[in-house]
Design brief:
Layout (H helix, E strand, L loop, with lengths): L4 E7 L2 E10 L11 E5 L10 H9 L4 E5 L6 E5 L12 E4 L10 E4 L4 E4 L2 E2 L10 E2 L1 H10 L12 E2 L13 H5 L6 H9 L23 H9 L7 H12 L5 H19 L9 H6 L5 H16 L2 H6 L5 H22 L1
Parallel strand pairs: 4-10, 9-11
Antiparallel strand pairs: 1-2, 1-5, 2-3, 3-4, 6-7, 7-8
Helix pairs in contact: 5-7, 6-7, 6-9, 7-9, 7-11, 9-11
Length: 337
């Protein structure tokens, strides 16, 4: 796969097309969202000619998204990316599980996160910060979905006409200086401007491994070997969907990543709770592995679990071990793609 590739997607009896514009992994950031693509609304009864594809990609797209299963789609060629789509897309993300009048928004350009209490109208049309698969893309094409449909009217700033990403405050400015700016921090909390409020009961940390805490142990005991990878996927999605990213949610995501690595390595000895699971299942599916790499990076960068480790003298050991797990998962991902 390379920038500019045109991918073909079967939607019912028709064909729809996407164009890859940016590979977030290649941008050098600490976590991977994968390929971003432009999704075009027009559908064809048969593969279009080169001239038709050129005309299609020169126009605007219905929406853009990070796509998890690009390798599963047929390649229909490669065309230049229009000037208006060459910059890395700015994406939006509500601070709550669902957008509401009380939530704030995180604006992200692939590197920086900035905070907006309400979105100016042009920003409502920005792509969502999420990873979806081709089944979701098909459904959105069928529904004629647009990114602005996910933004309630009362979340839109009706006064501000323009949109300039750089004018919004960096989220890190508040998080990195929480003690020095406690008054500002409390103000942001009351205004709903905190993206990840780290709450929840402290975990019992028995060691620095992915299963060495009370939440991970409890989650492992509940792991149902007969449900396939569903429990692991649910643990990862629970973390991704959590606006607080609590220590418990973070620990479960880390444990899920540990299960994925163990299943790939098939060691002679493993956690007792995993033995039945390993007997029944091979390596994790690509979408589960990809979600684990994204989640693990977030656990390392900003999570309730990391915040708890910051008050523990074994912090550096935990960082080293978790970073090693992250690198091993990325190596697995590279082999699969």
């Amino acid at each position: 796969m390379k920038t500019g590739d045109i991918l073909e997607l079967e939607v019912g009896s028709d064909l729809a097309y996407l164009q890859l514009t940016h590979n977030h992994f290649a941008s050098g950031e600490g976590f991977w969202y994968g390929w971003f693509c432009r999704v075009f609304s027009r559908r064809f009864s048969k593969r279009p000619t080169s001239r038709q594809l050129t005309s299609l990609t020169a126009g605007g797209e219905q929406f853009g998204c990070f796509l998890s299963d690009v390798s599963q789609l047929a390649n229909a060629g490669n065309l230049p990316i229009p000037i208006q789509s060459q910059a890395f897309p700015i994406c939006k993300q509500p601070t709550g599980a669902m957008p509401s009048k009380s939530c704030a928004w995180i604006l992200w350009n692939g590197a920086e996160e900035r905070v907006a209490y309400r979105l100016p109208r042009p920003a409502a049309a920005l792509p969502n910060r999420e990873i979806v698969d081709s089944a979701v893309v098909k459904q959105r094409l069928h529904d004629r979905w647009l990114p602005s449909m996910d933004v309630p009217t009362d979340c839109i700033d009706q006064i501000t006409a323009g949109f300039d990403f750089k004018t919004y405050p960096l989220l890190s400015e508040y998080e990195d200086n929480r003690d020095q700016h406690r008054d500002i921090w409390k103000f942001l909390e009351t205004k709903g401007l905190i993206a990840f409020e780290l709450t929840g009961e402290p975990l019992q940390l028995s060691g620095t491994g992915p299963f060495d805490n009370s939440a991970a142990r409890q989650w492992l005991q509940s792991l149902d070997a007969t449900s396939g990878w569903n429990d692991v996927l649910s643990g990862l999605k629970r973390f991704q969907d959590s606006p607080q990213r609590t220590a418990t949610d973070s620990a479960i995501a880390l444990a899920a990543a540990g299960v994925i690595l163990i299943a790939a390595q098939k060691p002679t000895s493993a956690e007792p709770q995993l033995r039945d699971f390993l007997k029944l299942h091979g390596p994790a599916p690509l979408d589960v592995l990809r979600l684990a790499t994204v989640s693990l990076s977030a656990v390392l960068q900003r999570s309730g679990l990391r915040e708890q480790w910051e008050h523990d003298e074994r912090m550096q050991l935990w960082l080293q071990e978790t970073s090693r797990l992250q690198l091993q998962l990325l190596a697995l991902l590279a082999k699969m793609t």
